[in-house]
Amino acid sequence: MAAKRVPTMLFGPSLREWAYNMSGFNKYGLMRDDVINETPDVVEALRRLPKHLVDERNFRLIRAAQLDFCKVILPKEEWTKYSEDVRYLAPYIEEVQKERKEREKWEKE
Protein backbone atom coordinates (compact mmCIF):
# COMPACT_ATOMS: atom_id res chain seq x y z
CA MET A 1 0.00 0.00 0.00
CA ALA A 2 1.47 3.33 -1.01
CA ALA A 3 1.77 6.02 1.63
CA LYS A 4 -0.23 9.16 1.04
CA ARG A 5 1.85 12.24 0.42
CA VAL A 6 1.31 15.14 2.76
CA PRO A 7 1.46 18.51 1.00
CA THR A 8 4.74 20.23 1.82
CA MET A 9 3.00 23.56 2.27
CA LEU A 10 1.70 22.31 5.63
CA PHE A 11 5.16 22.34 7.13
CA GLY A 12 6.09 25.91 6.26
CA PRO A 13 4.69 29.30 7.12
CA SER A 14 1.16 28.21 6.28
CA LEU A 15 1.20 25.69 9.16
CA ARG A 16 2.18 28.53 11.50
CA GLU A 17 -0.61 30.70 10.12
CA TRP A 18 -3.10 27.85 10.47
CA ALA A 19 -2.05 27.24 14.10
CA TYR A 20 -2.20 30.99 14.76
CA ASN A 21 -5.75 31.19 13.42
CA MET A 22 -6.82 28.05 15.29
CA SER A 23 -5.63 29.50 18.61
CA GLY A 24 -8.64 31.82 18.51
CA PHE A 25 -7.25 34.87 20.30
CA ASN A 26 -6.87 36.72 17.00
CA LYS A 27 -10.65 36.58 16.53
CA TYR A 28 -10.89 38.96 19.48
CA GLY A 29 -8.24 41.31 18.11
CA LEU A 30 -5.55 40.11 20.51
CA MET A 31 -1.86 39.61 19.76
CA ARG A 32 0.42 36.78 20.94
CA ASP A 33 2.04 38.95 23.59
CA ASP A 34 -1.39 39.91 24.97
CA VAL A 35 -2.05 36.31 26.02
CA ILE A 36 1.45 35.36 27.19
CA ASN A 37 1.73 33.57 30.55
CA GLU A 38 2.61 36.17 33.17
CA THR A 39 5.80 34.96 34.83
CA PRO A 40 7.79 37.32 37.09
CA ASP A 41 9.96 38.24 34.07
CA VAL A 42 6.89 39.05 31.98
CA VAL A 43 5.36 41.14 34.80
CA GLU A 44 8.57 43.18 35.02
CA ALA A 45 8.64 43.56 31.22
CA LEU A 46 5.03 44.80 31.29
CA ARG A 47 5.99 47.33 33.97
CA ARG A 48 8.71 48.68 31.65
CA LEU A 49 6.48 49.05 28.58
CA PRO A 50 5.98 52.59 27.28
CA LYS A 51 2.60 54.11 28.17
CA HIS A 52 1.23 54.02 24.60
CA LEU A 53 1.93 50.26 24.35
CA VAL A 54 0.30 49.66 27.73
CA ASP A 55 -2.76 51.64 26.62
CA GLU A 56 -3.02 49.69 23.35
CA ARG A 57 -2.65 46.37 25.20
CA ASN A 58 -5.28 47.33 27.80
CA PHE A 59 -7.69 48.38 25.05
CA ARG A 60 -7.29 45.01 23.29
CA LEU A 61 -7.72 43.06 26.53
CA ILE A 62 -10.82 44.99 27.63
CA ARG A 63 -12.38 44.72 24.15
CA ALA A 64 -11.68 40.97 24.10
CA ALA A 65 -13.24 40.53 27.54
CA GLN A 66 -16.34 42.44 26.46
CA LEU A 67 -16.64 40.46 23.22
CA ASP A 68 -16.30 37.20 25.14
CA PHE A 69 -18.91 38.34 27.67
CA CYS A 70 -21.32 39.09 24.81
CA LYS A 71 -20.46 35.75 23.15
CA VAL A 72 -19.42 37.39 19.86
CA ILE A 73 -16.21 37.74 17.89
CA LEU A 74 -14.95 40.56 15.71
CA PRO A 75 -15.81 40.67 11.99
CA LYS A 76 -13.20 38.71 10.05
CA GLU A 77 -11.63 41.85 8.53
CA GLU A 78 -10.82 43.07 12.07
CA TRP A 79 -9.10 39.85 13.23
CA THR A 80 -5.40 40.17 13.99
CA LYS A 81 -3.54 38.73 11.02
CA TYR A 82 -0.45 36.55 11.47
CA SER A 83 1.59 38.92 9.33
CA GLU A 84 0.51 41.93 11.44
CA ASP A 85 1.11 40.38 14.85
CA VAL A 86 4.10 42.13 16.41
CA ARG A 87 6.03 40.67 19.35
CA TYR A 88 6.04 44.03 21.12
CA LEU A 89 6.92 42.53 24.52
CA ALA A 90 9.80 40.28 23.40
CA PRO A 91 12.62 42.90 23.60
CA TYR A 92 11.57 43.84 27.13
CA ILE A 93 11.35 40.20 28.26
CA GLU A 94 14.80 39.48 26.82
CA GLU A 95 16.22 42.50 28.64
CA VAL A 96 14.64 41.44 31.96
CA GLN A 97 15.87 37.85 31.57
CA LYS A 98 19.37 39.03 30.75
CA GLU A 99 19.41 41.29 33.82
CA ARG A 100 18.04 38.50 36.04
CA LYS A 101 20.73 36.05 34.85
CA GLU A 102 23.41 38.68 35.38
CA ARG A 103 22.08 39.38 38.90
CA GLU A 104 22.01 35.63 39.71
CA LYS A 105 25.56 35.26 38.45
CA TRP A 106 26.67 38.28 40.49
CA GLU A 107 25.01 36.93 43.67
CA LYS A 108 26.56 33.52 43.10
CA GLU A 109 30.10 34.88 43.14
TrEMBL record:
Keyword Electron transport listed: yes
GO cellular component annotations of the record: mitochondrial inner membrane; respiratory chain complex III
Keywords, in A-Z order: Electron transport, Membrane, Mitochondrion, Mitochondrion inner membrane, Respiratory chain, Transport
Family matches, as InterPro entries: QCR7, QCR7_sf
Main location class: mitochondrion
Gene Ontology biological process terms from the UniProt entry: mitochondrial electron transport, ubiquinol to cytochrome c
Subcellular location: Mitochondrion inner membrane
Mode of membrane association: Peripheral membrane protein
UniProt-listed Gene3D superfamilies: Cytochrome b-c1 complex subunit 7 (1.10.1090.10)
Subunit structure: Component of the ubiquinol-cytochrome c oxidoreductase (cytochrome b-c1 complex, complex III, CIII), a multisubunit enzyme composed of 3 respiratory subunits cytochrome b, cytochrome c1 and Rieske protein, 2 core protein subunits, and additional low-molecular weight protein subunits. The complex exists as an obligatory dimer and forms supercomplexes (SCs) in the inner mitochondrial membrane with cytochrome c oxidase (complex IV, CIV). Component of the ubiquinol-cytochrome c oxidoreductase (cytochrome b-c1 complex, complex III, CIII), a multisubunit enzyme composed of 11 subunits. The complex is composed of 3 respiratory subunits cytochrome b, cytochrome c1 and Rieske protein UQCRFS1, 2 core protein subunits UQCRC1/QCR1 and UQCRC2/QCR2, and 6 low-molecular weight protein subunits UQCRH/QCR6, UQCRB/QCR7, UQCRQ/QCR8, UQCR10/QCR9, UQCR11/QCR10 and subunit 9, the cleavage product of Rieske protein UQCRFS1.
Family: Belongs to the UQCRB/QCR7 family.
Function: Component of the ubiquinol-cytochrome c oxidoreductase, a multisubunit transmembrane complex that is part of the mitochondrial electron transport chain which drives oxidative phosphorylation.
Protein name, UniProt field: Cytochrome b-c1 complex subunit 7
Gene that produces this protein: LOC107264237
